[in-house]
Design brief:
By secondary structure, this protein is an all-alpha fold. Helix content is about 70%, strand content about 0%. It is built from 11 helices and 2 strands, in the order H-H-H-H-E-E-H-H-H-H-H-H-H. Strands 1-2 form a two-stranded antiparallel ribbon. Helix 1 crosses helix 9, helix 2 runs antiparallel to helix 3 and helix 2 crosses helix 9.
Length: about 300
């Protein structure tokens, strides 16, 4: 019983990590006033770039950095369209979600001789490996990305609520015109936040392909970016709240794996639906009181009031 509980905790932490990075990406972008629906696409690019970097270099840390750079480059496109060109942020995000998976698959076929999935690549190290601890704790298996995700949440919380730059981010997300009159460069602040959002989303994609499944497939990021956005809303656009919501969705994924072990006669199709059903349920029943930053999704034109 204790061993099963420890295993459930391990799987929850493992599968919540991509959500955590995606959720933190959503928090920093939306707190600055830019809706980033393209997190799904940025995570997909990061998932492929991480595998490509790990495969070519033989070093998964290089793969992780490559994923962050790739996610940041894609986010730059979103920042140009939504901040500099004052385009529709939703349309830009949807375009990235359509473009990124296709580009990742194309890159995979080009790099791996026409294959739709990559070979197994070197994985990121583990903080605690299965069997390294005695007794029931031997089922504990924790990747280094779990710690990195937690650090990311703590750092983002500190930046947003304990630094002058964090105050500027929140001000341009709440009332950009007032921030502008105080000398804050609204466009530059939003641009930087969107790019950082892409870097974090890239890390989220790589945490799936370099820490969990060790390869890139078309379904490596299957709606996880959208679940991360739901976690942002459920967490009320705060890093700590989003982190807790990501743990909830990770727990749901862990239940799918544990229940799919054959102990309970539940059809696999029903189990596969569970994380997405949980996401819909959370959005319908638990986020009615959540209030987004006032200027979230509203393009800012200098001089407007």
């Amino acid at each position: 019983m204790i061993g099963s509980l420890v295993m459930l905790i391990s799987i929850t932490l493992m599968y919540s990590t991509p959500f955590v990075f995606g959720g933190m990406a959503g928090v920093i972008s939306e707190r600055s006033g830019v809706t980033n629906i393209g997190i799904e696409g940025m995570m997909t690019i990061g998932a492929f770039a991480g595998v490509a970097g790990s495969f070519l270099s033989g070093n998964p840390w290089v793969g992780l950095l490559t994923a962050g750079v790739a996610g940041g480059l894609v986010a730059t496109l979103h920042a140009i369209a939504s901040v500099l060109l004052v385009g529709d942020q939703t349309v830009s995000g949807v375009a990235i979600n359509l473009f990124a998976p296709g580009f990742a698959l194309f890159g995979c076929r080009m790099l791996f001789d026409g294959a739709a999935m990559s070979p197994i690549v070197p994985k990121l190290p583990k903080l605690i490996s299965s069997g390294s601890l005695p007794g029931a704790l031997g089922n504990l298996d924790i990747d280094v990305t779990v710690l990195l995700g937690l650090i990311c949440c703590v750092v983002l919380w500190f930046v947003l609520y304990k630094t002058k730059w964090g105050l500027r981010i929140r001000s341009v997300g709440e009332h950009p015109a007032a921030a502008d009159t105080l000398g804050i460069n609204v466009s530059a602040t939003r641009f930087i936040c969107v790019v950082i959002s892409g870097v974090l989303a890239g890390f989220g994609g790589a945490s799936m392909t370099l820490a969990i499944i060790s390869q890139f497939t078309q379904t490596a990021i299957a709606g996880q970016g959208f679940i991360a956005l739901a976690a942002v809303i459920f967490g009320k656009w705060t890093p700590h709240g989003t982190y807790g919501a990501c743990m909830l969705f990770g727990f749901t994924q862990a239940l799918v794996i544990m229940l799919g072990g054959g102990v309970f006669p539940i059809p696999s199709q029903i189990l596969a639906m569970l994380p997405y059903v949980m996401t819909i349920a959370v959005l319908v029943f638990f986020v009615g009181g959540s209030v987004a930053p006032k200027a979230d999704g509203v393009p800012y034109i200098k001089g407007s009031r």
